[in-house]
Amino acid sequence: MVDQQRIVVVKGLSFIGIFFTALVMLVGAWTRLSDAGLGCPDWPGCYGQWVVPTADHAAVNYPAFPLEASKAWLEMFHRYVATMLGATVILLLWLGWPLRRVKQYPWNISIILLMAITAQGTFGALTVTLKLWPQVVTLHLLGGMGILLLFVLLYSRLKALQQNSGRQPRRASAHWWLVAVLLCCQIALGGWVSSNYAGISCQGFPSCNAQWWPEMDISEGFHLTQTVGPNYLHGQLHADARTAIHMMHRLGGGLLGAALMALWWRYRHDRAALGLLTVLKIYCLQVVLGIASVVLWLPLWLALLHTAGAMALSVSYLIAWRQWRYNMSDRNAHGLNSSSTANYLSPDKASQPAELVTLAANRQARYD
Description:
Elements: H1 2-33, H2 55-61, H3 69-96, H4 107-129, H5 134-162, H6 174-195, H7 218-221, H8 239-266, H9 275-295, H10 300-326, H11 338-344, H12 354-367
Helix pairs in contact: 1-3, 1-5, 1-10, 3-4, 4-5, 5-6, 5-10, 6-8, 6-10, 8-9, 9-10
């Protein structure tokens, strides 16, 4: 009973972790889009203080960085919420310690979360100290997305443990993995677009700067070993390089959509894969938000919605994948309920019509 109560508490805390991670990511995007990433020139404090100081204090200690209070407060709010997220991870470990030997308890996810949040804090520090270096900013975004998915996975595993679900997962096909890889690459491309300020380097849609295939400098746009400049606020790349980044993000979105549509079509009759339809709807909404961001010249509210859409797309795909792997309701497709299927496959096959036994066996092989 004690273990059950503790599992309920840990599950609730993991849900709080999902909320905090989403909030940290959105506030981080708001900070970046508002050019407040260097609102505090140092880390973890702000002008040597734990709160935003007065302009006089900032001028004395950091004369090269004039204080903009609104940007500094936005940056510090991001850090405060991130600190609360880190405390949530530590509390999860503390509460989960007595459960670490419980069968099927996801203790390994808690450990990975601790390592991920530590790495994420390091990327946060490097984002400031390296003055918004695009490589670090993009990794910081990917780290936040990874932490979000880890919290969702932890919550799902705890929910299954609470329900005492002993279902064995089905083996995922290469198609599921392909979409996952494409989704990860597309999110990375989105982060690269944002960190290099390439969101409006293409004017118009579906063409780019009145051309279907504009001038692009792909080698410079994806030069991942570029040296660290003095300051990457507003970007350092020339126009053709930013256009290349933007166009690759567009092409990646189209490739992801085609792969996702093919995956849905393949499993459209599988009731356990109904979550793919939700993923497709979110993808379509995300495309609309991306197009609107370009056409309307990247307003802040729309860019934040686009970030939230990427988060929703990733989470919904993870949930759909888990539902397909563990939910066996697809065996009810085509009018066969679980009880009748069990009867068809019962050891006493002599009492069943041969054609029904064959039909049930074929359907089981098809969906397994």
